[in-house]
Amino acid sequence: MKVMKMVVPTAALAALAGTGATLAAAGIECLYVLDCGRNLGVDQTLASKQRIAAVLEENKAQLWINHDKAESAQLRYAPGYYE
Q: Whole-prediction pTM value?
């Protein structure tokens, strides 16, 4: 795996040989809840959302948040892996 760049402090874009570009994010759900305790304000929240959308589009990347039980159940965990 090659980490291509950090998108926001809690998200990294990685190029996976078999899976493709993947944006793995932690805490990103707060960008969609303006009263979240980690939120730094409406302007910065909107700018972060726009940045993430642009990175996903530019890189044709998947967004992995992994805070959804149904989504998480479909992912591979050790000893499985993604290429």
A: 0.68
